[in-house]
């Protein structure tokens, strides 16, 4: 089944802000040789993440920048095609940072996990059972620490992380309020994901709508955006509120950082806490999260939406589309019809 | 010993920003009558706190505003002059919110505590063994959670809270860096309070000096100021840093909040946390803190400085002086020569 050509998406030049098609190029390479005790994997789905903007940026960050001329870093779900490692056998389903390409020859350490939820679609290993679901689970439950009856607000609420945060909040007995862009996404929040309310940040009366949706104040804010959307939420923090910083999607450039209202007085008067996290610091949480998430998927208590683009040619423009909000749900590139 | 006149400092008008002399007036009243099971106390020392700006402000806050025409709210250390309550006897030393006045008749519930450290000067009950010391102890140890070898930075470092924070940090095996205004205060930090380094925020090369003093980055920042001083510290946060918001002394008005650089990206990349607290929420911590603080005082490991103004006539202008940085150490008003 192994083809002889490996199509790869390389980083052609380093973008200033959001990576666009022109920053990438697609090349055809020979398959790498299987040496040592490595594993040859064939990617089924490639992931497209907001975090990729950071991965290609030279600005100091939480991971080394992808080198110009290198294969674009990406999570993928893949089948083992050949293996010289005793832990992996042909046919195993695995995930890891296999890159935007058809095939990869990797060390066993590069494999994040063997996917054992074979009753569920393999693509879920990149979204709700991947980095997005685990991020939502860890950030909301470990940092946000919601208590039953509290109000949880999440931005980019219709997205892969946000939709999961809102649903977990509901499962934990909280009131969930989503913030998303446009009526289609706010409807998704309330109708598909079960949020109690959802507010469109693109409407002129966003601040009033948010105030109405958060009448009892905000106890946990899961922040995927930063910027003016978050400024509006900060106005409603309750005493003892927890703000979880997961992403900063609404800010195009942090060099220099944009100006905004200072928040120290809010934090003092409300005895509130703002905390950032990066899920890669918490590998020990993955098993706990996957156990919960897979269980909720099987019982039908957790829903997800995928935005699947067909073929590796779609990859170069896929990140910019994410920042424009073109997608509904977790954005993936499908490479095979398996 | 009881005089027949009670001199009281009343709030005459509500200030927009920092309270000045003109916002207060001094009146002479008759002593209130001792009724019910109340206690008559004679104030020895009155406290002057940065927090008083908030207490007289009508802006939503963590305590009700002092009413115009009312006695200015203040902590005081006092002797019981007469008592109808079984728990208090004539001669007992007590602290509480007795107000800027010579005498107060109070319910037992208004007494914060009976001062039992009679081997130490009574004025310490308002500073290092009062709200300032307990604030430093709780904020640094419970919220900042410093570990030995870490770098702790504190702003208004020569002040009543800041000097205590730096010394506790040293006692816990940390490196202590102070930020203060002017060479006299930075010298105090290093020479009297044992900070490893102190930086003058009023010098033009403050940013460079701070960077040099924090070569290994900042693990805990105990923030009494907010504003540009804090912006400079945020640049140096280490991974996993904790920022404790205790006060916002450098910002004259929060209505509307001033603009500053957004900090979400710092918090995300550094997995850092910013948290506000108000010590009145944590009465259970007082005994623990006083036990430590009094012990360190007796063993000579904890030093303090007092800025004592003589007579109640000094009170009306004393808050503004605090914000100008006129004082060296805890500012107090002495009412008797006891």
TrEMBL record, chains A, B:
Q: Name the domain of life this protein comes from.
A: Bacteria
The UniProt keywords, alphabetically, are: Oxidoreductase
InterPro entries reported for this sequence: ADH-like_C, ADH_N_2, ER, GroES-like_sf, MDR_fam, NAD(P)-bd_dom_sf
Q: Enoyl reductase (ER) domain: which residues?
A: 17-333
Q: Does the keyword Oxidoreductase apply?
A: yes
Pfam families reported for this sequence: ADH_N_2, ADH_zinc_N
Q: Which residues form a coiled coil?
A: none
- Record SUPFAM superfamilies: GroES-like (SSF50129), NAD(P)-binding Rossmann-fold domains (SSF51735)
The molecular function terms in GO held by this entry are: oxidoreductase activity, acting on the CH-CH group of donors, NAD or NADP as acceptor
Q: Does the keyword Oxidoreductase apply?
A: yes
**Protein name per its UniProtKB record:** Zinc-binding dehydrogenase
- Its source organism is Paraburkholderia elongata
Q: What is the lineage of its organism?
A: Bacteria, Pseudomonadati, Pseudomonadota, Betaproteobacteria, Burkholderiales
């Amino acid at each position: 089944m192994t083809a002889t050509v490996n199509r790869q998406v390389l980083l052609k030049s380093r973008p200033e802000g959001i990576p666009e098609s022109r920053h990438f190029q697609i090349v055809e390479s020979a398959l790498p040789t299987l040496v040592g005790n490595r594993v040859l994997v064939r990617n089924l789905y490639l992931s497209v993440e907001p975090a990729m903007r950071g991965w290609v940026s030279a600005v100091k960050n939480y991971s080394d920048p992808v080198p110009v001329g290198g294969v674009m870093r990406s999570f993928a779900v893949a089948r083992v095609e050949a293996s010289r490692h005793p832990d992996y056998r042909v046919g195993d389903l695995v995930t890891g940072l296999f890159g935007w390409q058809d095939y990869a020859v990797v060390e066993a350490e590069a494999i994040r996990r063997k996917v054992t939820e074979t009753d569920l679609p393999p693509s879920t290993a990149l979204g709700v059972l991947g980095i997005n679901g685990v991020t939502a689970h860890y950030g909301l439950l470990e940092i946000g620490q919601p208590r039953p009856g509290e109000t949880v607000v999440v931005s980019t609420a219709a997205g892969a992380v946000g939709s999961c945060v809102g649903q977990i909040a509901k499962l934990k007995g909280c009131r969930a309020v989503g913030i998303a862009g446009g009526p289609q996404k706010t409807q998704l929040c309330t109708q598909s994901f079960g949020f109690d309310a959802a507010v469109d940040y693109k409407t002129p009366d966003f601040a009033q709508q948010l105030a109405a949706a958060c009448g009892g104040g905000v106890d946990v804010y899961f922040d995927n955006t930063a910027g003016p959307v978050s400024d509006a939420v900060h106005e409603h923090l309750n005493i003892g509120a927890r703000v979880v910083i997961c992403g900063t999607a609404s800010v195009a450039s942090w060099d220099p950082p944009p100006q905004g209202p200072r928040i120290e007085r809010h934090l003092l008067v409300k005895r509130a806490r703002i905390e950032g996290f990066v899920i890669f610091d918490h590998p020990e949480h993955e098993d706990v999260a996957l156990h919960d998430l897979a269980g909720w998927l099987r019982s039908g208590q957790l829903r997800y939406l995928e935005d699947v683009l067909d073929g590796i040619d779609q990859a170069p423009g896929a990140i910019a589309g994410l920042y424009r909000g073109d997608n509904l749900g977790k954005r993936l590139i499908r490479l095979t019809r398996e």
